[in-house]
């Protein structure tokens, strides 16, 4: 009785492990009592010891979880879990769980850890609590448990610091919006066959009074975890509507309408009035909607494809152009290209930069170009840094390119100068 039967056949030491059990098993004797389990099949009985006797608490079946408090607390799992029949369970290791939570949202991680810790303290001190007996297994003063408690406190401190940093930054962003510290930098997008300037991508910059220019990757992810990103993106859109009209004026009598691309965070697709808010910004500014390109990523679409489809169709009806950003890095599938009203594919920088050293990247670019032609989409290759890359990319049939070869992102006044000299040179 109570033995783990050769459970290791299917173990993958990486993440969650599958554990196949025959007979009844006392889980707590065979692991460090620091994991939780999801029951895939079978039944598990949870019990505690009271006055030396086993007291069954509950029977859990398929889809239920036990050992959950061990994931976030400093102590080991204390109740005993016994498989009462053949069971299949998934093991969840605490570090995996903690990493996932922290990636998702450090504040949520912090609050969960605190709650579990408080629950444990309460259950230790509460005389009627079933969990009073839960501390019994700790009597063996296993050194691992003490280490774990230290790790936990350290982890908690780090969690608290990260969460606080994020909260402060979110607050600071709101303050910075009021102080008008955000502005777009514009990066030229040129036609590859003749190098004519077609338009620019607006990339947000935070001109911080003490820290200087802060790049978007340092604050957009934080802004995305709050609703602040909405204000940032709408601020950029408003500004883009103004700037593109100024650019067109500066360009004078050219044969084409310039465009400005703005980046939109995927989380906006959850908001019902997303497209109507955009419509009112476009209307207010009296910009020609054909001059505004909205850049969205593949993952943004895949989060809620139905909603995304409705929103994109609505935006397209308003005359806006839709570009799929970072193409090739997400869930590329033919199905959704057909389904969503997309006008432009932006090939991710990673493929462009590898084009001469990695035949796979070359093939990816080739495949994307042919895909784009099939669906009648334009292509912009991102991150072109060398003349050779530009030649190869153009040779594959890409219409347009963007990258340090042509220019880094520029403040608006510098972009105007770039525009003037580009028209003088290439028309
Ligand atoms: P992205 O949309 O893929 O923008 C292109 C990024 O690649 C920009 O970085 C640009 O400066 C950089 N880049 C362009 N050409 C080259 C090149 O030749 N070589 C290299 N190494 N890099 C190049 P940036 O400005 O730091 O922006 C990073 C990301 O931040 C953007 O990636 C976009 O996802 C996000 N972002 C920027 N502005 C906004 C915004 O207003 N709203 C939202 N939601 N996200 C934004
Ligand atoms: Ca972009
Ligand atoms: Ca991109």
Short description:
The protein has 427 residues and is α/β, with parallel strands linked by helices. The chain has helices at residues 27-30, 68-72, 94-104, 106-125, 143-178, 220-224, 228-251, 274-285, 298-303, 305-317, 334-339, 349-353, 359-374, 387-395, 412-426; strands spanning 17-21, 36-41, 44-50, 53-60, 65-66, 80-83, 87-92, 182-191, 197-208, 212-214, 259-263, 292-297, 321-327, 344-347, 378-381, 400-401, 410-411. It folds into three domains: 18-93, Jelly Rolls; 104-154, no CATH class; 166-426, Alpha-Beta Barrel (TIM Barrel), CATH 3.20.20.450.
Can you walk through the features of this model?
With about 425 residues, this protein is of the alpha/beta class. The protein is about 45% helix and about 20% strand. The N terminus is likely disordered. The chain has an 8-stranded mixed β-barrel with strand order 8-9-11-12-13-14-15-16, surrounded by 5 helices. The protein has a 4-stranded antiparallel β-sheet with strand order 1-7-2-5. The chain has 3 domains: about 80 residues, Jelly Rolls; about 50 residues, no CATH class; about 260 residues, TIM Barrel (Alpha-Beta Barrel). Strand 9 and strand 10 form a beta hairpin. The N and C termini lie far apart (about 85 Å). One calcium ion binds next to loops.
């Amino acid at each position: 009785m109570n033995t783990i039967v050769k459970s290791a056949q299917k173990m993958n030491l990486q993440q969650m492990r599958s554990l196949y059990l025959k007979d009844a098993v006392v889980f707590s004797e065979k692991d460090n009592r620091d994991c939780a389990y999801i029951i895939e099949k079978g039944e598990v009985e949870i019990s505690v010891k009271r006055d030396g006797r086993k007291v069954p608490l509950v029977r859990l079946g398929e889809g239920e979880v036990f050992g959950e408090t061990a994931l976030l607390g400093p102590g080991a799992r204390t109740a005993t879990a016994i498989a009462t029949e053949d069971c299949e369970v998934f093991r969840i290791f605490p570090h995996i769980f903690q990493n996932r939570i922290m990636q998702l949202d450090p504040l949520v991680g912090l609050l969960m850890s605190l709650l579990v810790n408080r629950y444990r303290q309460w259950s230790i001190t509460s005389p009627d609590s079933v969990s009073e007996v839960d501390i019994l297994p700790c009597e063996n003063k296993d050194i691992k448990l003490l280490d774990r408690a230290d790790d936990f406190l350290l982890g908690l401190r780090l969690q608290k610091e990260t969460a606080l940093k994020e909260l402060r930054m979110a607050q600071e962003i709101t303050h910075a919006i009021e102080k008008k510290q955000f502005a777009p930098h514009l990066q030229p997008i040129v036609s590859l066959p003749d190098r004519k300037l077609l338009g620019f991508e607006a990339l947000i910059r935070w001109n911080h009074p003490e820290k200087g220019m802060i790049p978007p990757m340092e604050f957009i992810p934080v802004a995305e975890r709050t609703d602040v990103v909405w204000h940032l993106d709408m601020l950029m859109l408003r500004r883009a509507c103004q700037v593109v009209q100024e650019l067109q004026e500066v360009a004078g009598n050219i044969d084409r309408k310039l465009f400005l691309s703005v980046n939109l965070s995927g989380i906006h697709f959850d908001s019902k009035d997303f497209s109507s808010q955009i419509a009112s910004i476009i209307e207010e500014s009296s910009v020609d909607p054909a001059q505004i390109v909205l850049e969205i990523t593949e993952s943004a679409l895949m989060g809620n494809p139905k909603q995304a489809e409705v929103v994109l169709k609505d935006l397209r009806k308003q005359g806006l152009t839709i570009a799929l950003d970072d193409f090739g890095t997400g869930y590329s599938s033919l199905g959704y290209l057909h389904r969503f009203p997309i006008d432009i594919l932006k090939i991710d920088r990673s493929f462009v930069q590898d084009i001469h050293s990695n035949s796979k990247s070359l093939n990816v670019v080739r495949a994307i170009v042919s895909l784009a032609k099939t669906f009648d989409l334009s292509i912009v290759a991102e991150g072109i840094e060398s003349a050779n890359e530009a030649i190869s990319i153009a040779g594959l049939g890409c219409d347009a390119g963007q990258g340090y070869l042509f220019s880094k992102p520029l403040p608006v006044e510098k972009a105007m100068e770039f525009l003037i000299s580009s028209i003088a040179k290439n028309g």
